[in-house]
Each structure stands twice: as C-alpha cells, then as structure tokens.
Amino acid sequence: MQQSLIKNDFLPDFCNGQTVFNAVLLAESLALIITLVSKEITGSLFRDLLLISLFIQWIALFSVAMLCYLRPWLNSLPPLRAGIIAYLLLVGITLLCGELAMWVLWAVGSNPVLHPEWYRYFQLQNFALAVIIDGLALHYFLSRHQLKLSTAAEAKARMQVMQYRLRPYFLFNSMNIIASLTRSSPSKAEEATEDLADLFRLMLDEKKSLVPVNNEMTVASKYIKLEKMRFDQRLNDVWNTEHFPLHARMPVLMLQLLLEIAIRQSLEKTSGPVEITIDSRLDDGLMHLDVCSPQLQPVEKIENEEQEALGNIRDRLATHYENRATLSLETKNSAQCLSLAIPVYEGNE
Q1: Nearest C-alpha neighbor of 6 from the set 138, 140, 160, 137
Q2: Which of 34, 142, 146, 300 is most exposed by smallest CB count within 10 Å?
Q3: pLDDT tens readout for residues 227-261
Q4: What is the rounded average pLDDT for all residues in the chain?
Q5: pTM for this structure?
Q6: C-alpha–C-alpha distance, residues 148 and 263, integer Å
C-alpha cells in the first residue's frame, strides 16, 4: 500500500499495470460470453472468439488509456460529476470503436459499403451493452479503489494510535530511570535529564510513522546511555551498524522498543554484566537488524508483557509492509537475537 492511496482521489490509477490487467481480463471474459451466446459470424467458434476479443479489447484498452490520461482532470471535479463524465466517456468510446471497426472492414474489403444494412443494429447492440457493461465495470473499479482508500486510512489511523501509545510509555520508562538516579547520583540524574530532553526533541521532530534509520540509531543510542546510568554501567553495547543506506527508513521507535525488550529480558534477569550487540546488514533489498545478547531469554521464557510488545511490533510491521517484513527470535553465535527484517525502499506512512 503506497502514499498515493492515502490521497482522496475518486478515480483509481488507470495507468497502473494491475488495473490494466484487470480491465483486459474483464474484457476477455465478456468476449467469451458474447461468443458463446451470439450467432456464428465466421462459421468457426475460435475465429469468432478471436474477432470479438479483438474488438472488445480494442475498446477496453482505448477506454483505460483515456481514463489514464484524463484522471488528473477528472479527480479535480466533484465525485458525482467525475463519475458521470467517466461513464459517458466509456459509452462514447464504445460507439467510436464501433464506427472505426466499420472503416477498417471497409478498408480491407470485408464490407462492400462503409455502412451496411446491419450497421444500425450493430451500433444499437454496442450501445446497449456499453450502457450495462461500462456501468458495472466502472462501479467495480471505483468500489475496489474506495476499499483500498478506506483500508489505507484505517491502517494509518491504527498506526497513529499505536504511535501515540508508544511515546507516553517511553517517557514513563525514561522518567523512572531518572528517578532511580536522583538520590544515588544527582549528577548522573542531571545528565540523564539533559539526554532525555535531547531525546524527546528528536522524537517530537518526527511527524511521520517511518523515519530515517539514522534517526532511529540516534534515539536508540541515547536510550542505551540512559539505561547504562540506571544499571550502573553493567550494560555494554556494541554497534555494528555502518552498513545501511542513509535514505533507508523504518518505523519510528521500533529499534528502541527492541532494545527495551532485550534489556528487560537479559539485564533485569541477572546481577552480572550484560553485552547487547546491535547489527545491521543489507540482503536482497531487505535491511536486517539484530539485537542480540547471550543473556537474552529464549522465546518460551519471555514474559507476557514482552510477548505483547513483540505482537505490537508485528502488527506495526504488517501495517507498514503487509507480509514483506518479519520479526523473529533466533539463536546466533551462542546469543539470542531479536531479528528484524524490513524492505529498505518500501513502507506505508
């Protein structure tokens, strides 16, 4: 689902390959039905189908081309007026193609005269079919387009709700870190407050659901710095994240949430030091981010709260990327890893 789906366009994109394919498929289905129910034309069912298919596909492709060309203008009109004009345009194209067919048959010598006696019946039949079929076809494409628009709008609204829930939760967690330092180390609490202010300045600057990976790295590194203060330097972080394109994007605060889950399921479960490694790599159009720790709990031991957080991440991934992104818990080099794979050049805002 792309950003163009969020725009309130009445007519779908008839220049799109999928739309053209659907139009051709509908036209061929109609040609098959007409061939089976109408009288023989050439004495051969296969030749009749070929002839009728050629004529109907001619109409379909011409209609799609005209709607593709006129779509910007039609979408600037009120929806009712745009729909009526598009419908009349389709009927007119059918009659025009019928007239052009007469000229072609006359030019190649199939018809001795330009307008034979059956011409009027031919055009009347074309008009009757166009009034019904064009109306149904236009209704199909409009309904399909409106469904995509409503689905995209619903997904965007759901994503905004998730995002608005995430930021207060992050603030609450960060304030707990500062509160825990206030008595034991006031200087560290002051430093943490400054880091938190910088952190929220970066977060509040972003109004979109997808942000540059570099921004996410900055937010995550400041979050790690706060957590180091809270756990009295028992946390060690190793970043191997130089291999990603600067323009790559990812869902906002997702890396921070993965780090939070890793910390809660490793550092809070032991009294010793913990090393968390953040790796990134590119592979076949996917950016892989791994948050790993030898002390990270296996999937069957992860608590319900973290399981719910992981489910939230998967929901966000599905909203942005449908089924093209994954989140898994894997074992790599004797460490448990939260492994995220997302398309580098895709994603719905």
Answers
A1: 160
A2: 300
A3: 787 777 788 999 988 777 767 888 887 888 888 88
A4: 80
A5: 0.53
A6: 39
